[in-house]
Write a structure and sequence with these properties.
The structure holds two protein chains of two kinds. Chain A is α+β, with helices and mostly antiparallel strands. Chain A is 54% helix and 15% strand. The mean pLDDT of chain A is 92. The model of chain B has no long low-confidence stretch (mean pLDDT 94). Helix content of chain B is 64%, strand content 2%. Chain B has one domain (7-546). In chain B, the strands form two sheets. Chain B has a two-stranded antiparallel ribbon. In chain B, strands 3-4 form a two-stranded antiparallel ribbon. Chain B has helices spanning 7-35, 43-57, 67-90, 107-118, 128-131, 134-164, 173-198, 227-235, 256-280, 284-305, 321-334, 349-361, 370-390, 403-429, 432-435, 441-456, 471-500, 515-546, and strands at 209-212, 218-221, 395-396, 399-400. In chain B, helix 6 runs parallel beside helix 8 (227-235). At the A-B interface, helix 1, strand 2, strand 3, strand 4 and strand 5 of A face helix 1, helix 2, helix 3, helix 6 and helix 7 of B.
């Protein structure tokens, strides 16, 4: 009788702690998150023509020469950002295939800059933000994607 | 010499340290109040909840436990919790909340995962986003992340009671465990989770989202109950991410701001526990000695990691930049959290050397609760060594340190190299290293040595990741993680139980509450650890550095 008695309390505590930590806690957090921050809670989805076309936080594939392209070697494999220098390097090609002047593209890119250390550090841009801006503001150039969206 | 650290970078380290130490000082006072049973306004809410939990489990939280009793209850509870998680992972396809219809995990992967999370290691041979159901993420992973953190806190409190000799024993395990959950981990994680959601981390039970991208391709957005997991995995120094890429994956760490918030979260409780120690032994200077010593060791790691320039490159995330990636990597090993925000293979060998130092010392300041425990292990050994040199009786906190204490501390210390080096050698001799395509040359040696060091130190960062999902690595690291977790805990609780009733002659021996002792302590830790592991560090990161290998990519 001695051994089962010793195991009784830990077994019951294990089950109680599983219910509290593994079910009550995450469900409560989910409830509040969905009510207070629905955009973030569902993955910061970008919308175009009222449809979700992906997430600002997750890189999506861009292959057409009219778009800025993400990198594909990063740790997560879905790095949504590129360094500003890499964006600049892509500008001549994009300008060629879209007819939008390089100086305008520079201006657009500069508007979307963030820094790795808030105001210091390496400048970078979010690829989807910039591409979405281009599609929204140059609908004639990007008519193919406007319709698809 | 050109180094990576710019003035804003250096200032950011100072700012983060200042914020953490200030928050930890406040939290330390709170921890002292709840573990010594001080009455407070929050009792009206917490007392009934806790009484209900005690009744459900059938425990008496007021019963004083012997050290053996305390440890047995602790390890049996952990074994049951581990078992419950094992069952959930093994049968997730039959259970609810599996919108992606992921299959069951194999027995060895379930075993490895349950042993890993329950030992506060969080070595991950599974890819969370591509193989775990929502229920598994919640009721296996998050569950064990809470309970292993609560176990760590309980261990610390019990050991502090014993070392101080002011509480008539080491206390009751269930009292410490339940209070750690209800009054510390759940409220803090709750606040942290809501902040993380506000900053962009998903938290939903709706399934993955299939979208048509701007170019017309299709993409799956892997959302889920992420924020509630990330909050406890950082606060509890667990480190096991929702995704295989851990905190490099943007849904787990979307911005430079969340990166800093997560760094603060992982540093907070281990630092607060040091302040708790000072209060519990009745001399805050004793806590300050540990604080200064552990942060000095942490600073040494940082200096090593910044000797060579790291530039942003493959394996790193653009939004964090090179500096924050290195700072995170050193911090996550210094606090034995093990979450990563970049691929370890992206770093130069000196960053990896710094990461090794954190995991080999385990007290810089180390994991939740157990970091300070390891510091006390080093203190017992240091006081003994200094006592021999000075010809005085070794004493700590006014109590004599007996030969039995020293022998036990040495057992705890030596168990670490034993459970790292033996399986590392086995991985080579049994061909298991080669079978997963690793182990060639100094870079390959680093990968295998790192795997077992991380397992033994209950850290959890690794090079191998899902490629180590083989029976050999699942079983071997599983055993190493539990031994690395519970041998030192058993030994240190035993020492604490012995010390609790010992006669105290204040200030008869060497003073341990001043900076001179802190310096001696840091020096002896460096000597002890470096002497033990030097040949292996030479074969791995140091040889890589001398050969001019830029990184493991």
């Amino acid at each position: 009788m001695k051994i089962p008695e010793k195991l009784n309390a830990p077994l019951r505590m294990a089950i109680v702690s599983m219910i509290i930590c593994g079910l009550v806690f995450p469900v409560a957090v989910t409830g509040i998150a969905e009510l207070a921050f629905p955009f973030q809670a569902n993955g910061e989805q970008a919308t175009f023509n009222n449809t979700s076309i992906g997430s600002y936080l997750i890189a999506q594939e861009f292959t057409a020469p009219v778009f800025f392209h993400p990198r594909n070697d990063s740790a997560s494999g879905v790095d949504p950002d590129i360094m500003l220098s890499s964006a600049y390097a892509q500008i001549p090609g994009i300008s060629n295939s879209t007819g939008i002047s390089s100086s305008i593209l520079h201006g657009i890119v500069d508007n979307f800059v963030s820094y790795t250390m808030f105001f210091f550090g390496t400048p970078y841009i979010n690829v989807l933000q910039v591409n979405l801006y281009l599609v929204e503001h140059y609908s004639s150039v990007y008519s193919k994607y406007v319709k698809a969206g | 010499m050109h180094t990576l650290v710019s003035i804003p970078d250096a200032l950011s380290i100072v700012a983060v340290w200042a914020i953490v130490i200030l928050m930890a000082w406040v939290l330390g006072g709170y921890l002292y109040a709840i573990y010594t049973g001080k009455k407070g306004r929050l009792d009206r809410f917490f007392d009934p909840v806790e009484r209900f939990i005690y009744r459900l489990a059938g425990v008496d939280p007021s019963r004083e436990m012997s050290s053996k009793d305390y440890f047995l209850n602790l390890i049996i509870l952990n074994a049951f919790q581990c078992g419950l998680a094992f069952v959930i992972l093994s049968f997730q396809s039959y259970l609810p909340l599996n919108p992606q219809h992921f299959p069951n995990l194999s027995w060895d992967l379930s075993l490895n995962t349950a042993l890993s999370i329950s030992s506060n290691t969080n070595l991950q041979h599974y890819g969370g986003g591509s193989s775990l159901s929502y229920l598994s993420q919640m009721m296996a992973i998050q569950f064990l992340q809470f309970t292993s953190a609560a176990t760590g806190l309980s261990v610390a409190v019990a050991i502090f009671r014993g070392f101080s000799g002011r509480f008539g024993g080491i206390g009751n395990f269930y009292y410490d465990f339940v209070r750690s959950l209800t009054r510390v981990l759940i409220p803090l994680s709750f606040v942290a989770a809501i902040i993380l959601v506000a900053l962009g981390i998903p938290q939903t039970l709706n399934g993955y989202v299939l979208v048509k991208t701007l170019e017309g391709g299709s993409q799956v957005l892997k959302v889920g109950p992420v924020a509630s997991l990330v909050s406890i995995m950082q606060l509890g120094t667990n480190g096991g991410g929702y995704y295989g890429a851990n905190s490099a994956y943007p849904y787990q760490n979307p911005s430079p701001l969340t990166n800093w918030v997560e760094i603060v979260l992982m540093m907070l409780i281990p630092t607060a526990v040091i302040f708790l120690f000072g209060r519990m032994v009745g001399n805050r200077k004793e806590g300050n000695v540990i604080l200064v010593s552990s942060y000095t060791l942490y600073a040494i790691d940082l200096v090593i990691s910044f000797i060579t320039v790291t530039t942003i490159g493959p394996g790193m995330e653009v939004r964090f930049g090179a500096f924050s990636s290195v700072f995170w990597t050193v911090t996550t090993t210094a606090f034995t959290t093990g979450s990563v925000n970049a691929s370890l293979a992206a770093f130069n060998p000196l960053v990896i050397l710094a990461a090794f130092m954190g995991m080999l010392i385990q007290a810089t300041p180390g994991g939740i609760g157990v970091g300070t425990m390891y510091m006390l292990m080093y203190i017992v050994m240091t006081v003994f060594i200094v006592g021999l040199m000075a010809g005085r009786t070794p004493e700590y906190l006014g109590a004599k340190i007996t030969p039995r204490d020293v022998k036990l501390a040495v057992i705890a210390f030596l168990s670490h190299p034993l459970i790292i080096l033996v399986p590392t050698a086995l991985a080579y001799s049994m061909g298991a290293a080669g079978a997963v395509g690793a182990g060639k040359g100094p870079v390959g040696f680093i990968e295998i040595f790192y795997e077992f060091t991380s397992a033994a130190a209950n850290n959890g960062s690794d090079f191998l990741g899902t490629s180590a999902n083989t029976v050999f690595f699942n079983v071997s690291t599983g055993i190493v993680m539990w031994l690395g977790r519970f041998i030192p805990i058993a030994v240190m609780i035993s020492i604490a139980g012995n010390m609790s009733g010992r006669v105290r002659n204040i200030q008869a021996g060497l003073r341990t509450d001043n900076l001179i002792f802190a310096a001696v302590l840091v020096f002896s830790i460096m000597i002890l650890v470096v002497l033990t592991f030097f040949p292996f560090l030479v074969l791995g990161p140091i040889l890589s550095y001398l050969e001019g290998i830029p990184n493991g990519l």
